[in-house]
Every structure is written in structure tokens, then in C-alpha cells.
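Please go through the sequence line and C-alpha cell line underneath and see whether the fold suits the sequence. See right below:
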Amino acid sequence: MRLVFILIIIALWQLLASIMESILLPSPKEVVNAFIELLQDGYKGATLGEHLYASLKRLFLATFAILIFAIPLGLISALNKYIRALFEPLVEFLKPLPPLGYYSILILWFGIGEFSKILLLFFAGFAPLFIASFSAVNKIPKDFIYSAKNSNADTWQIFWRVIIPYSLPDIFTGIRISIGASYSALVAAEMVASQNGIGWIVLDSSKFMFIDIMFASVILIGITGICIDRIIVFIKHYFIHWEGK
């Protein structure tokens, strides 16, 4: 069914491309040729692999920082009301803010280098993972905690044997949402202030009306995002084998 749906989309795309001007909507064949051109010649002095590496490097560095801070703070906030009182208002403030809304401030403070981009991705992905970690702990049935205490388990044993295993499925879901939010912010950040990356190719090619290259880059962004998400789903399925059991 997925394959049939994709073929229908391509057929409709080809039909619209034959009706509209190619400068507005290139045909699937033109986009494929543009993608092959990107693979062979790169774009503006860098290979497609180098542009993709630049984007993924920013994403992974930001994700690593998010994992280090968001998960522990989310878990601790759910267990300690004083920590929750400190961080919950900050998260509630960051959650509805569009990343580009404060990106200008980050550029003003830290310049247009890599740090400001990674910091933007960090803020974009922090709130979803914090909330997922926080909510996961609150969903744990009280009977699980009481049973562990009746078995003479201490605080650390309850944390590692009950809280962490029960919370991991929701935490992985939070990781998927967090990476998706950071990835969206990454493309926006590269469009605003960058000289490399897939998002920058989209913006730069649109300036010079390389519409086929722009479409090829947008499709590549989508495929890359799907691949990252599938990898996380695979890791979750492999390691969190007790989910739902």
C-alpha cells in the first residue's frame, strides 16, 4: 500500500509538472537528474556528503547535549518537587516558542558560528524530551513502587530497577519527537546563517532559481529525517523488548 501510494504521488507530480512551468515545478526526472548532479559535482565547492555531514554533525552534537541534560532533569523533576519548581517554568516558557523567534538573540550573543546553531537545536529539542521523561515517571503505577519497597529495595534500586525500565519506552518516544524538533530547527538555522549544510543548499539554490536542486535537497532532507527516525525505532524495539508485556 505504501508503494502504491508513493507511485500515485509521483504520477500526480508528473501530471502537474507537465501542466505547470518547469521553473515552478520540475518533473520527477529533472529532480532525479539534479540529485545525480549533486552526488557527482556537489554544490558550491563541497560534495553532497560534506553538506550532509555538516548538518548531521550539528544535529548529533545537539542531541547528545539534550540527552545528557533533558532526561536526568526530567526524571529528577518528577521525583523532587523542589527541582520541578526550578525547571518546569523554564520548560513551559520554551515549549511554545518558535526556534527562529530567539535565534536572532543567539546570533547577537554568540555570532553565526556553530555554537549558536547547536544551542538553537538544543533549545528546540530540550522541552519535548524533558516533558516525556517527566511524564513517564508520573505514569508509573504506585503499586510498583510499594512492591519494591516491601521487598526491601532501597532508593537507588527502585530508581534503576523500577523507574528507569518503566520510563524508557516513553523516553524513547520523547527522543523521536526531540530529534524531529531539532532537525526542523536545523534546516531553519542553516537557511538563516550558514555556508554549508542541506538547509543552506535549499535556500541558496532558491536564490538562483535552481528549482530542481531545491526540490532534490528538500526530498533529501525528508528522507534523511525518516532514516534517523527509523534507526531510533529499531533501537527502541531491540533494547526495550519489554514494552507492552
Notes: The radius of gyration is 22 Å. The first helix runs from residue 2 to 19. DSSP finds ten helices and no strands in the chain. The CA atoms of residues 90 and 99 lie 15 Å apart.
